[in-house]
Specification:
Strand content: over 45%
Strand order of the largest sheet: 8-9-10-11-12-18-23-22
CATH architecture of the largest domain: Distorted Sandwich
Structural class: mainly beta
Order of helices and strands: EEEEEEEEEEEEEEEEEEEHEEEEHEEHE
Helix content: under 10%
Number of domains: 2
CATH topology of the largest domain: Beta-galactosidase, Chain A, domain 5
Largest sheet: 8 strands, antiparallel
Distance between the termini: 19 Å
Length: 376
């Protein structure tokens, strides 16, 4: 049985597209597609996996566009079928305080959120060629947790370090939103608690993972708020709304390389500088790998400042302006008013040692993805 649901028209836009994640709104008439596994986009004789989920009250479709030329418009059909489809896709295993995420037989990453941890974080993170690209709790900075969120001055409290006086970020509720052949998504509701037990900040973190042929994409959406009081983010370099500590073998100190969107190389040209993205790459056991953090154009104080070090740290910090500019009067403090939200969107590209041109193209995909039109 094969049932055509809707026709789609995909506009590539001004850029060539290669393995580009695409999301679009579906009409209410397509509600039968929700939670269905045997759905796909038929286009040009190819069957492209499609995943459907409800998001903020609307039905959304998701797929990875294999290829489109700049300026090209493609047409296809969304089809519900009882034919056997490939079993390859995402799966997960939930253990005590750890959510293990796999694609096929490969471990992609794990979300660690146990109550004994100082903060929730992703570790390990693997590239498609099987290399662990991040480090957890290295001896020189034990509070560097692979891929994490934290800041060193929130209402005067330290949530960056892991000392006896530091606050902690506790995951109160972790749930899987969607797990299929196209992507995996989880929500984590977190509270930032001081040593004395006061809640200084609430956080909703959504992590969405896409698996490409040679890349892994990790989208991290962060919403910070407090309905009880104002929240002040202090001017300090010790922090990052998105932070990454790379594998010890790809640090600049061990032969790796830092590069930002303006062509700045290594710490001397990248630390404290503003840039749209920052990449860390190197060689691990003969395999080229890299990890890039993309700042979204809608983020607060875009483009962000980067606290990036030759020893392996890469973090997007938009608050430590006086330190980064060496100008004590140029303060980066920010007060989030009670009841308001501060939102951030990032994409992390885990790649097999790609150059800056490739990274730039993937960044464009993040900011300006193809447009999809529906006709029933």
């Amino acid at each position: 049985m094969r049932k055509r649901i809707v026709e789609v028209e995909i506009e590539a836009g001004a850029h060539e597209r290669v393995e580009t994640p695409v999301s679009f709104s579906l009409p209410k008439s397509a509600s039968s597609l929700k939670d269905q596994e045997n759905i796909c986009l038929e286009m040009g004789g190819e069957r492209i996996p499609l995943q459907v989920m409800e998001w903020e009250g609307s039905l959304q479709g998701y797929f990875i566009l294999p290829y489109a030329k700049a300026g090209e418009t493609l047409r296809g059909d969304i089809v519900l079928s009882d034919e056997e489809e490939s079993e390859t896709g995402f799966s997960y295993d939930l253990k005590e305080g750890v959510l293990i995420i796999n694609y096929g037989k490969d471990h992609v990453t794990s979300y660690n959120y146990g109550k004994l941890l100082s903060k929730p974080y992703l570790y390990p993170i693997f590239s498609t060629n099987g290399v662990r690209v991040t480090e957890d709790g290295p001896g020189d900075h034990v509070h560097h947790r692979s891929l994490w969120v934290a800041h060193g001055d929130v209402n005067g409290q330290d949530f960056w370090a892991e000392t006896e006086e530091s606050g902690r970020i506790e995951a109160r509720d972790v749930k899987v939103n969607s797990c299929g052949k196209v992507f995996f998504e989880l929500d984590s509701s977190n509270v930032w608690i001081t040593k004395s037990g006061n809640i200084e900040l609430y956080e909703k973190r959504t992590i969405c993972i896409w698996k490409l042929k040679k890349d892994v994409l990790i989208d991290v959406a962060i919403t910070l708020f407090n309905h009880e009081k104002d929240t002040k983010f202090g001017d300090t370099k010790e922090g990052g709304i998105l932070s990454i500590r790379v594998n010890e073998k790809i640090t600049v100190d061990n032969g790796g390389k830092i590069e930002n969107s303006f062509g700045g190389i290594n710490e001397a040209e990248s630390w404290g500088k503003r840039a749209a993205w920052c990449d860390y790459s190197g060689i691990v056991d003969g395999k080229k790998v890299g990890i890039t953090a993309f700042d979204h154009i809608d983020n607060f104080r875009y483009p962000t400042y980067w606290h990036v070090r030759n020893y392996g740290l890469m973090t997007a910090n938009m608050f430590g302006i006086s330190i980064f500019t060496n100008s004590p009067k140029n303060r980066g403090d920010y007060v989030l008013p009670k009841g308001e939200e501060l939102r951030f969107k990032y994409r992390v590209l885990v790649h097999e040692g790609k150059d800056s041109t490739y990274i730039k193209n993937k960044y464009i995909d993040f900011l300006y993805p193809p447009n999809v039109k529906i006709s029933t």
